[in-house]
C-alpha cells in the first residue's frame, strides 16, 4: 500500500502555531459562496414569522439585515479569516409554517485572493440567531439547525453540496 502525501496545513507555521495564510501570491478573481441555516419552531410560531406578527416586529427583514451586516464583520469574528472587500451580499428567507421551519440562504461575492465561505456562513448564522431572538418571546424551544455551506466557486477548486436537503 502506498502512502499518499497529506497537503501541508496552511494555517500552521513551522512550529505548529496558528497563523493567517499568506494569499499575496494568488490572483484576485471573483469568489462566490452560498450557505444555508434553518431555524425550527412550532407551526404557530412559524405562522407569526410568516405574517409579520411577532412581538418584536417583522422577523424576516430584520434577520436579512442582520445577516448582511454580519457578513461584513466575519474577519473580526473569525481569528484567521482575511478582511475582504465584498461586492455583493444577500440573505433570503422563506417560511414553511406547516413544518415550523424558517430557511435562510446567503450569497456572498467578492473579487479577491481568498474565498468568501466564512462570510456566507456568518451571514446565515447571525440571521438565524436573529430569528431566534425575535421569536423567543413566543417560544423558547426554537432550535437553530443545519448551518451548511451550499457551494463555493472561484478558488483553487469549485465545490457544491451534493444534496440540498
Explain how this protein is built.
The structure is a single chain. The chain has 165 residues and is of the alpha+beta class. Helices cover 27% and strands 29% of the residues. The protein is built from 4 helices and 5 strands, in the order E-H-H-H-E-E-H-E-E. A 5-stranded antiparallel beta sheet has the order 2-3-1-4-5. Helix 2 (59-71) runs antiparallel to helix 4. The longest helix has 19 residues, at 117-135. It is elongated and about 55 Å long. It starts with 28 loop residues before the first strand and ends in a 5-residue tail after the last strand. The mean pLDDT is 90.
Biggest β-sheet strands, sense, barrel: 5 strands, antiparallel
- What does the radius of gyration come to? 18 Å
Amount of beta strand: 25-35%
Mean pLDDT: 90
Q: How do the strands line up in the largest sheet?
A: 2-3-1-4-5
| Ends apart, CA distance between termini | 37 Å
Helices, by number, come to 4
Residue ranges: pLDDT <50 for 5 or more in a row?
none
The number of strands is 5
Q: Helix share of residues?
A: 25-40%
Q: Provide the succession of SSEs.
A: EHHHEEHEE
The SS-based structural class is: alpha+beta
Amino acid at each position: 500500500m502506498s502512502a499518499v502525501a497529506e497537503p501541508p496545513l496552511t494555517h500552521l507555521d513551522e512550529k505548529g502555531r496558528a497563523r493567517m495564510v499568506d494569499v499575496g501570491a494568488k490572483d484576485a478573481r471573483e469568489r462566490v459562496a452560498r450557505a444555508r441555516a434553518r431555524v425550527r419552531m412550532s407551526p404557530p410560531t412559524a405562522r407569526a414569522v410568516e405574517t409579520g406578527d411577532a412581538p418584536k416586529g417583522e422577523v424576516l427583514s430584520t434577520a436579512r439585515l442582520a445577516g448582511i451586516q454580519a457578513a461584513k464583520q466575519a474577519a473580526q469574528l473569525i481569528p484567521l479569516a482575511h478582511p475582504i472587500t465584498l461586492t455583493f451580499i444577500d440573505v433570503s428567507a422563506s417560511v414553511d409554517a406547516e413544518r415550523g421551519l424558517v430557511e435562510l440562504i446567503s450569497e456572498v461575492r467578492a473579487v479577491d485572493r481568498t474565498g468568501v465561505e466564512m462570510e456566507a456562513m456568518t451571514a446565515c448564522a447571525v440571521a438565524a440567531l436573529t430569528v431566534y431572538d425575535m421569536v423567543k418571546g413566543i417560544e423558547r424551544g426554537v432550535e437553530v439547525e443545519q448551518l451548511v455551506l451550499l457551494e463555493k466557486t472561484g478558488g483553487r477548486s469549485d465545490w457544491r453540496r451534493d444534496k440540498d436537503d
